[in-house]
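**User:** My hope is that you can spare some time for a protein that puzzles me. I have put the entry right below:
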Amino acid sequence: MFFVKKRKEISNNNPGFPLLEDISLWAEKFDLYEDLLRSIFGVLEKDDHYHSMKYIT
């Protein structure tokens, strides 16, 4: 979780979404599926949505 928090700090809590070309390069470099990386960054981009869900019971 350290890396998620660090990314939020570096981006001033506005992480955005990486360029698809960058995701493609990272997928190849780290032997991962592009769809997996897109999903991860999609969740990180919508952090506030998940944060507000903890109050719903």
